[in-house]
Amino acid sequence: MSQDDDWLIDDSHEAPAEEADSFWNVLIVDDEPDIHRVTQLALTGINFLGRRLKLHSCYSGADALAYLSQQNDIALILLDVVMETEDAGLKTARAIREELGNRQVRIILRTGQPGVAPEREVIESYDINDYKAKTELTRDKLYTAVLGTLRSYHDIMLIDQQRQMLDANRRGLLKVIEASRVIFQKPSIEQLAQGVLEQLQSLLFFEQDALYVVVHGSVAALSEDEQQVKVLYATGGYTNLRGKTLPAAELARFRPTIDQAVSGQQSIYADDHFIGFFRTPHGPVNLFIIEGPVSLSHGDRDLIDMFCRNVSIAYENLMMAREIEHAQRSIIYQLSEVVEYRSKDTGNHIRRMSEYAYLLACELGIPDEEAKEIRTAAPLHDIGKVGIPDRVLLKPGPLDTEERKVMDQHASIGYDMLKEARPRILQMAATIAHQHHEKWDGSGYPQGLSGDAIHIAGRITALCDVYDALSQARCYKEEWPREAVLDAIRAGSGKHFDPSVVDAFFRILPEIEALRLLYRDDAPHS
Predict the structure, then answer these.
(1) How many CB atoms lie within 10 A of CB 177?
(2) Structural domains counted in the chain
(3) CATH of the domain at 389
(4) Rounded to an integer, what distance in angstroms lies between the CA atom of residue 343 and that of residue 336?
(5) How many angstroms separate the CA atoms of 152 and 158, rounded?
(6) Nearest-angstrom CA–CA distance, 307 and 316
(7) Comparing 144-148, 251-255, 356-360, 419-423, which segment has the lowest mean pLDDT?
(8) CB-based contact 310:339 (threshold 8 Å)
(9) High-pLDDT (> 70) share of the chain, %
(10) Is residue 17 in a domain?
């Protein structure tokens, strides 16, 4: 049996409801009701560090253990040794520490029979904080013992709170590191935006509606009709705004906080939303707009600031990678066009080859990063033709046997030109240049490879090259009719071409033909 003796709280100074837990909870465990009443009277009016005592009563060790298993905010236990058994209090003290695992609560053992449990033996054998004979506990001595023990409890809880804060900060730091790792892996700006919002929500904001926006141009010049704020990614109620301009109404709503964030170059925590700010040295202003009430500790805000800095680095790296990729593609196109102009196969052959190869790679389930490498490298498939004499390369008609042998050398020449290159794209280009004339049945050149021994990029490029060559007029032939081209592709399945690549080709034929029209030879280069 247990009860709370709330009458011990000074009724003339009743605590507000919101401060109902601002007490020192003290549990009296004794089988004599008179001891409870005497203790309650002795402790009436005690105030320590601005908090009063709230006394609770249990009348046996078993009741105390049951009560403590449900109540984890007891600061002090005044525990009788002899209750239902001569050592009930000792067993209860040990159970509190070992069974309940409660190491914070302070325990003062009290006994009316000191000889039953000698003080020295009890102090050495049990994890208690004081041991008193009831006869020596005058009101003043009880007051001193209780306050000294509460001070000890306060210090322990303060240390534990600081440890919990350190643990929380450590967990938060690990979350930021993990979240940053995820966003650094995003291959595109849109995927970065998605990753940022998802990681922010997993860190602190949970399922609140959110926007990731990029501000183009001068923020100071923003107006409702300039449409300079683009939504890269959005969640919740804003999902339909992905890829669109932030509507004027939403811009007007968030404009004061956006202005504050931009002018101060920092994130802003408003009452009903959060604006996360970052910008890179060479990029536009980026903002995270998180809807809903924001109540974060200083530690949480520090984590968000750290996360924003990491996002800024990821964004800058992504922009630099995009610039490098564009530069590589530009250089590769220019190199490829040298070959095309020299062989008089001008027009958009290299662009068609590039896009055909990418579509097929995606349809075959090749990871997007590798598919993009194939797209960038495919235009260099004929780079070896720079080493072929004009008399062969520019001959307006079929080649004889010797001329064909010379022409066939372009695959090996291209490979030799690129094989020592270190960039992955040029390594891919070396493989494509070397293998795009290999055939599925092993009858191709220069190595006579067959089946899966031919790199998938070589197999893809082989089909794309034949399709484009048959579909376009050349100096040595006329353009083939559409059905004749498709029949040739079908006939080559399992012989010239990988059957799985042929199947993929026909699955996406409408897209292939749309690209052929888009990049027809009389269309302008782009």
Answers:
(1) 13
(2) 3
(3) 1.10.3210.10
(4) 11
(5) 10
(6) 14
(7) 251-255
(8) no
(9) 77
(10) yes
Sheet holding 210-215, edge to edge: 229-235, 210-215, 285-291, 273-279, 268-269
The answer to whether residue 304 scores a pLDDT higher than 90 is no
Query: Same domain for 26 and 151?
Result: yes
Residue 78 or 190, more confident: 78
| Dihedral over Cα of 172, 173, 175, 179: its sign | positive
The residue among 38, 47, 45, 40 whose CA lies nearest residue 3 is: 40
Residues of the domain holding 190: 185-318
Q: In sequence order, which ranges of 346-438 are alpha helices (DSSP H)?
A: 349-363, 368-377, 390-393, 401-408, 410-418, 424-435
Domain presence at residue 105: yes
> How far is Cα 307 from Cα 183, in angstroms, rounded to an integer?
10
Report the CATH number at residue 206: 3.30.450.40
pTM: 0.51
CB neighbours (10 Å) of residue 157? 13
Residues 483 and 365 in one domain: yes
The pLDDT assigned to 226 comes to: 47
Q: Which tens digits make up the pLDDT trace of 98-141? A: 999 898 899 998 887 665 556 667 777 788 888 888 777 778 88
Residues 287 and 431 in one domain: no
Give the CB-side neighbour count of residue 97, counting CA atoms within 13 A: 12
Q: Which residues of 500-517 are buried (b: 16+ CB within 10 A; e: fewer)?
A: ebbebbeebeeebeebbe
Q: Which tokens sit at 325?
A: 């990729």
Active site residues: 385
Q: What is the pLDDT of residue 64?
A: 93
438 & 302 share domain: no
